[in-house]
Amino acid sequence: MADCNTKPGPCIAKKTPGGQPAEKMNYSQLFESVKKAAFVVGTALLVFAAARNTITWHMQRFWGASGDFWQTTWNNIYSLFNEDEMLVGVVGTTMFTFTVFWLANSFLIFLDVTGMPSSLLRYKVQPDKNTPLAMKDLKKICLRALFNQTVVALPMSFCTCLVMKWRGCPVSGDLPTFQWVLLEIAVFTLIEELGFYYSHRLLHHPALYKYVHKIHHEWTAPVGLVSVYAHPLEHVMSNMLPPVLGPIIMGSHLATSWLWFALVLLSTTVAHSGYHFPFLPSPEAHDFHHLKFNQNYGILGVLDRLHGTDNLFRASPAYERHILLLSRVPMSVQYPDSSPKKSTKNEEKTE
Ligand SMILES: [Zn+2]
Ligand SMILES: [Zn+2]
């Protein structure tokens, strides 16, 4: 298949496998990239606004109309750590992120190992891979994940807390308003896209790839836990640094950072899960990265559009599947891989 990456100048008059006309690549990449960023941030703001109202409403019903639920919860957490800012910053943050990550992944591990409930297997992005996930593979991923989350993450968390303290990021006192949290998370998202895209591209440099990033790419069909299956240097440089930069730059409250870290961990777990489930963000782009290696380095797709590192992806059936699944019919059924051989066979049959 011709690839716009390999040719200078505009790439025109191509058709995607789905039959849709492809874009005149280089002319509109910047505009499309900005449009994509605006769409992602705008959608995130809307979702948060909607979720906020719903969550508040439920909280008020359950906890006797207390508008201070989150403030009280945070105060209790802070007291639990003897109101020690470093303790809650290092140990508290590690415990919280660890719990969120393993709770989300325990469901995926069960599904990957047992194949139950079997009705969910039809949502697999690469249906013939990891069905079931071998126990020796699971053990290998778990060991590296645990190593990164303790031996690597704890000293990194300690350094981050020192920087946050120096930056004046509050740990106690009043929580920020919801509107401010919303704005901060939108900013964090863009900072993470910048940090992750460029650090990830750097990791694909031959000098680094062979010794560092190759480990993460042992998995051409990832599973949820693979999100933290990486060389320690990569775990710091690409998994931890881009998400902590936002809260440091914005001088955010630690509670906001916790919310943000939970979102990051859930998002990367979904991106690596190997399943395109209904009503969850599409994992197709990052799954395609694991399959093809030189496509989709970013998270949002904003910088991939700008740099044209998604050209092959956009010309593939996976791109058509890269949307929010809003029905129970799997994407692989709605947009199957079309092979020229198959269509010839079908044409022969109908003749
Ligand atoms: Zn990955
Ligand atoms: Zn990579």
From TrEMBL:
Pfam families reported in the protein's UniProt record: FA_hydroxylase
GO MF, one annotated term: iron ion binding
Region (Disordered): 1-20
PANTHER family noted in UniProt: STEROL DESATURASE (PTHR11863)
Transmembrane spans: 37-55, 86-111, 145-166, 244-266
Domain of life: Eukaryota
Record-given protein name: Fatty acid hydroxylase domain-containing protein 2
Any single biological process term in GO: lipid biosynthetic process
Localization per record: Membrane
Principal location class: membrane
